[in-house]
Amino acid sequence: MRQEPLWSGLALVGALQARVSGALAREVSGVSIDTRTLQAGDLFVAIRGEARDGHEFVRAAFEKGAAAAVIDETHAKELVGAGPLLVVKDVQRSLELLGMRARDRTAALVAAITGSVGKTSTKDMTRLMLSRFGATHASVASYNNQWGVPLTLSRMPALTRYGVFELGMNHAGELTGLVAQVRPHVAVVTRVAAVHLEHFASVEAIADAKAEIFTGLEGGVAIINRDDDHFARLAEAASPYAGHVFDFGESEGAQARLLDYRKVDDAHEITADVLGRRLVYRIGAPGRHLALNSLAALLVALAFDVDVEAAAQAFADFTPTAGRGQRETLSTRTGPFTLIDESYNANPTSMRAALELLSGTEPSVGGRRIAVLGDMLELGPQGADLHAGLAEDLARARVDLLFTSGPLMSRLFYAAPDAMRAAHRATPLELEEAVLGEVRAGDVVMVKGSNGSRVSRICGVLRETFAAGTAS
Questions:
Q1: What string of H, E and C letters represents the secondary structure of 288-343?
Q2: Is the residue at 97 inside a domain?
Q3: Which of 177, 178, 343, 378 lies most in the core, judged by the most C-beta atoms within 10 Å?
Q4: pLDDT score of 324
């Protein structure tokens, strides 16, 4: 059975406010801004990025089978004849217009999720849960910025039943623009933490910026973490826009409250009270933070009027993605060890959660808990102190060996107990040899740092060096 096209050529002309150069494509099956992942039949949108201009890759996009390309007037003359072109004044703005047209044409129930930590896992859990009840469209990876949000919207099929969008920001005002495009029925704030402090005067200012997500609600539902220090501030900010505010957490009085979290056999069992209904369910990945995120997802289910008990059972199939807690078994010559890949991003709050996760993971006989940490970035003048302040968390997590890289992580390395310190190097590249030389059978190795610290390369070299076992 032939799949319906995502967009017809005529619909694209109107939505993009474009003029046609060359033949008009009959239809497109997808939308792409990256030739590395572009599929035949896609519309290629020549976005000007931070490092490269997409117009440089238009001809390559057609070579890979693009059905059409969106370009600006400045490049129209030089690209005549490359293929079907949709020429616009401003490519970024036209992508936003396409996304908003996609939002207009669907009757989907839409949730938008933000937070300093936990937004991607909450988005992934919500997508998994809602997909049990109907066609669900969600942000891939962390497509949560000025390019990712309109791109995700533009890819949303007209017959979508549920939409789940992750919204990110590192400056005040960003979420206001993004949420105006998404226009959610439900807006979730997972947690406010000390991130992007180089762009904000205080954590309170970060809370205010996160609260911008509520401005897209028109009498919809706000969902807020009751355990958060800024809960009252967020709830007050939501009140002019939300018809109702739900909350979740471990605190007394939380409408979705975590009552118990424990490991049962090889699973992680949660007992929760959701508006007076006692639920017992399992999550396919460890971490108390994931248990709390599942409560936010269940409140989305409640707002969308799906069976909450059936929704909770979906989480048994949840597995974290690479860089966000994914676990792998790798093999040395003498036996296997566990790699926990938390390398996508980091801030003090998520670092503490990752160390708690490491603490709860038992090494095999003869094994040790090993933390490999890269710099947490965008913390402003407090950065060095925030790194050093994690020393007690390392001790509580029962870390046996600490490897660090980067100028900020040097503060934590020398604040840690002497017996724990294994090696510090200026860069992850320089740290590789020390880590590879130490890992042995039975170890649990957790790698975490901000994406810009490049500590993820340690995960890559561990995978390349040791034969892969089974993912868990």
A1: HHHHHHHHHHHHHHHHCCCCHHHHHHHHHHCCCCCCCCEEEEEEECCEEEEEEEEC
A2: no
A3: 343
A4: 80
Residue 237 located in a structural domain? yes
Mean pLDDT of 461-470: 79
Same domain, 270 and 131: yes
- What are φ and ψ of residue 80, in 5° steps? -55, 130
Segments forming the whole domain that contains residue 464: 326-471
Q: What is the pTM of this model?
A: 0.85
CATH code, domain carrying 372: 3.90.190.20
| Distance from C-alpha of 17 to C-alpha of 55, rounded to nearest angstrom | 18
Residue 94 lies in a domain: no
| Statement: residue 471 has pLDDT above 50 | no
Per-residue model confidence (pLDDT) at position 470: 45
Per-residue confidence band for 1, with pLDDT thresholds at 50, 70 and 90: very low
Contacts of 197 (CB under 8 A, 6+ apart): 203, 206, 378, 379, 380, 381, 382, 383
Looking at residue 201, its pLDDT comes to 84
The C-alpha atoms of residue 53 and residue 46 are separated, in whole angstroms, by 7
| 296 and 211 within one domain | yes
CATH code of 41's domain: 3.40.1390.10
Helix (H, G, I), strand (E, B) or coil at 351: helix
| pLDDT reported for residue 338 | 95
Lowest mean pLDDT among 81-95, 188-202, 347-361, 436-450: 188-202
Q: Where are the beta strands (DSSP E) in 33-185?
A: 42-45, 68-72, 85-88, 109-114, 136-138, 162-166
Q: pLDDT tens digits for 35-66? A: 999 999 999 999 998 788 999 999 999 999 99
Q: Which phi and psi angles does 214 have, rounded to 5°?
A: -75, -20
In this prediction, residues 104-114 reach a mean pLDDT of 97
Are residue 181 and residue 148 in the same domain, yes or no? Answer: yes
What pLDDT is recorded for position 468?
56
Q: Give how many domains the chain has, as a whole number.
A: 3
Residues 253, 175 share a domain: yes
Among 46, 15, 13, 43, smallest CA distance to 31 is for 43
Picking from 69, 73, 47, the residue whose alpha carbon sits closest to that of residue 59 is: 69
Residue 346, pLDDT score: 87
Q: Does the structure show a pLDDT above 80 at 204?
A: yes
Q: Given its phi and psi angles, is residue 150 left (phi above 0), alpha (psi -120 to 50 degrees) or beta?
A: alpha
Residue 427 lies in a domain: yes
Amino acid letter for position 324: R
| HEC profile of 366-388 | CCCEEEEECCCCCCHHHHHHHHH
* Residue 281 and residue 331 in one domain: no
Nearest to 144 by CA among 116, 125, 108, 106: 116
Alpha carbon of residue 173 to chain centroid: 20
